[in-house]
């Protein structure tokens, strides 16, 4: 599962997208939860979704449930070390 890079990171690393992993910091760029930032808490490979902390909805009993986000709608934040094998081309 990969997420697209921002334009400045794209020119810096010459790569369009990098794999998303747990504990990566991302910003959601599309949809109802856009402009929210957080850490990836879970990568749900079967449904091709990621869960980001502080992106939740409350159930009827008040229990918070994480909202699944498609990885193409999230961008890794620029201050973090990106996956090294993504740039080995």
UniProtKB/TrEMBL annotation:
Pfam families: KOW, Ribosomal_L26
GO MF annotation list: RNA binding; structural constituent of ribosome
Keyword Ribonucleoprotein: yes
InterPro entries the UniProt entry points to: KOW, Rib_uL2_dom2, Ribosomal_uL24_euk/arc, Ribosomal_uL24_KOW, Translation_prot_SH3-like_sf
GO cellular component, one term: large ribosomal subunit
Domain KOW: 19-46
SUPFAM superfamilies according to UniProt: Translation proteins SH3-like domain
BP-aspect Gene Ontology terms: translation
Keywords attached to this entry: Ribonucleoprotein, Ribosomal protein
Family designation: Belongs to the universal ribosomal protein uL24 family.
PANTHER family to which the protein is assigned, alphabetical: 60S RIBOSOMAL PROTEIN L26 FAMILY MEMBER
Protein name: RPL26A protein
Organism listed in the record: Symbiodinium natans
Organism phylogeny: Eukaryota, Sar, Alveolata, Dinophyceae, Suessiales
